Amino acid sequence: MTEEKKPLNFLEQIIEEDLANGMPKENLRFRFPPEPNGYLHIGHTKAIGISFGLGEKYNAPVNLRFDDTNPAKEEQEYVDAIKEDIAWLGYKWENELYSSDYFQQLYDWAVLMIKDGKAYVDSQTSEAMREQKGTPTRVGTNSPFRDRSVEENLQLFQDMKDGKFNEGEHVLRAKIDMADDNMLMRDPLMYRVLYKEHHRTGKDWCIYPMYDWTHGESDYMEQVSHSLCSLEFKPHRKLYNWFRDNVYEFSKNEYPNPPKQREFSRLNLSYTVMSKRKLMKLVEQGIVSGWDDPRMPTISGLRRRGYTPAAIKSFIETVGVSKRENVIDVSLLEFKIREDLNKTAKRVMAVLDPVKVVITNYPEGDGEMLDANYNDYEEGFGTREVPFSREIYIEREDFREEANKKFFRLKLGKEVRLKNAYFITANSCTKDDDGNITEIQCTYDPLTKSGMDTEESKRKVKGTLHWVSIKHAIKAEVRVYDRLFNDEAPDGHKDKDFMEFVNPSSLETITAYLEPSLQTAKIGERFQFQRLGYFNVDNDSTAENLVFNKTVGLRDSWAKK
Q1: Are 98 and 212 members of one domain?
Q2: Considering the domain boundaries, does residue 11 fall inside one?
Q3: What phi and psi values does residue 282 have, to the nearest 5 degrees?
Q4: Given 276, 384, 411, 483, which residue is catalytic?
Q5: Beta bridge partners of 96
Q6: How far is Cα 78 from Cα 299, in angstroms, rounded to an integer?
């Protein structure tokens, strides 16, 4: 029986058509081109998955190129974080490249554009240029400096490069058409003066190329065959092609294969903001602890939260490649990490909201070690020993003095199973002056130990509780996270700032009690706390002070909300 073939997405169809029309397969080349002005987030994983996925499918090289043209916002920290994130996702790039590698070539081409009458130095203020650019319904007007001579433009551009002018005093613009329906074609900027030290080129340059001029020409120099980007760049395609076609005339012998730009829909996620500027605001205002705060949608935040590359890749594959913008429910991402950790995480016992249980007929001072599987449903996870004693903790919500028949946990006069241990029956409880239960007195049946194979141990009880022995339990800090925003579209309100929708209850820090096998847990290690959810060891954790993050609950708690 042959394996069913998956239908091609529209980008794969474009590539297959190009190959069918004579493009040599060895000419296929892709790139992922982040700007190093922030950390990558879940939205970027779609673009990463598309470019690197096509590279894997067609056995074609994929470059990692940093479009680093704005030294005012770009830092080496972001470069390092981006590389770490992509490598963590499991992708390998062919070459690590930078648009700043091409500053000299871009400058040389700009000089040729001036000589061809395709670019000029404009000396208007930014306000004047904005006004004369027109609107989508009103054509623009030509700059009074548009018809400067080639010689004057060359001299001014050289003087810009030599640092003879202030920022904003002059810019270089492409000379296209101020009446074009596409406003991006109305003499766009190519260079501006900027006295900022670049993270790679230092103070070598004081003019920096604009993104639209740099991006396509970098693709061209790298001989990228398919320049894939998100839908907001679709209006830029006409300008991309105009720059490409003009530069091709200068360098077609050296760079024979001009690239083509194609666009796909971005990944938009409910209850999430994707703008780097807005994420930066959350960091700067201390709403979160940093770019890798586990509530952030950044890849580093998701990694710290306990997400896995496999879960993120499965999510991206399920979302698919499309041409139309839509919003994906964040619950799908949460489902994917649940699905992955259900197959891979060890199951252990921890109590997050403890209440004391005293087993009155268990000998005082005694204790025993019980065998427990890390996974009762799958082989290969191994076992560990769990200590048992007269005094244990259970979850406070697992006990009620009285309850209806649908409550299958511990209640007075009823019996439950302690996971991996014995059956216990609740007989009485003690309360404080406010009526809060401080202790539950129970008895146990010594013939019901798990694995004893006695008639008593085979009795049917509907409730099984997790627990920890009080004298053996280790304390840990547990950070319980909720969604960072309590609105489905926090930045979708024209009359409100997205910060108004920050969830004030997105983080609760508690002291939990864990079975002692977790004392040796390593940073990043993931576990299922039985009946509670999935947790991982946080970066802040030490041998003396364990810190766990709640990755996700066992069920979608927001579905009810």
Answers
A1: yes
A2: no
A3: -60, -40
A4: 276
A5: 64
A6: 12
For strands 399-400 and 410-411, give the pairing. parallel
DSSP 488-505: SSTT--TTS-GGGGB-TT
Per-residue pLDDT, 44: 96
Q: Which tens digit of pLDDT belongs to each residue from 133-161?
A: 999 999 999 999 999 999 999 999 999 99
- Cα–Cα distances in Å, from 326 out to 320, 321, 496? 12, 11, 22
DSSP string for 76-135: HHHHHHHHHHHHHHT---S-EEEGGGGHHHHHHHHHHHHHTTSEEEE-S-HHHHHHHT-B
Task: Please enumerate in sequence order all residues whose Cβ is within 8 A of that of 457, keeping only pairs 6 or more positions apart, or say none.
Answer: 423, 447, 448, 449, 450, 451
**pLDDT tens, position by position, 358-406:** 999 999 989 999 999 998 888 889 999 999 999 999 999 999 998 888 8
In the 8-state DSSP scheme, what is residue 26? G
Q: Which of 73, 238, 266, 400 is catalytic?
A: 266
Residue 180 lies in a domain: yes
Name residues whose C-beta falls within 8 Å of residue 240's C-beta, 6 or more positions apart in sequence: 212, 215, 216, 227, 233, 261
Give CA angle at 234 (135, 249), nearest 5°: 95
Cα 130 to Cα 186: distance, rounded to the nearest angstrom: 11
Give me the count of residues in the chain: 561
Structure tokens at 501: 């929708």
Determine if the pTM surpasses 0.90.
yes
* Whether 306 and 160 share a structural domain: no
Which of 29, 31, 35, 65 is catalytic? The answer is 35
User: Two tokens at 344?
Assistant: 């891979």
Domain region containing 250? 18-264
Q: 38-97, pLDDT tens digit by residue? A: 999 999 999 999 999 999 999 999 999 999 999 999 999 999 999 999 999 999 999 999
| Whole-angstrom distance, CA of residue 122 vs CA of residue 126 | 10
What is the CB neighbour count within 10 angstroms for residue 526?
A: 21
Domain-located, residue 185: yes
Max CA distance (Å), the chain: 102
- Does the annotation mark 35 as catalytic? yes
> What gap in Å lies between CA 393 and CA 185, rounded to an integer?
69
Whether residue 233 lies inside any domain: the answer is yes
Place of tokens 């005293």: 358
Count the Cβ atoms, other than its own, within 10 Å of residue 90.
Answer: 11
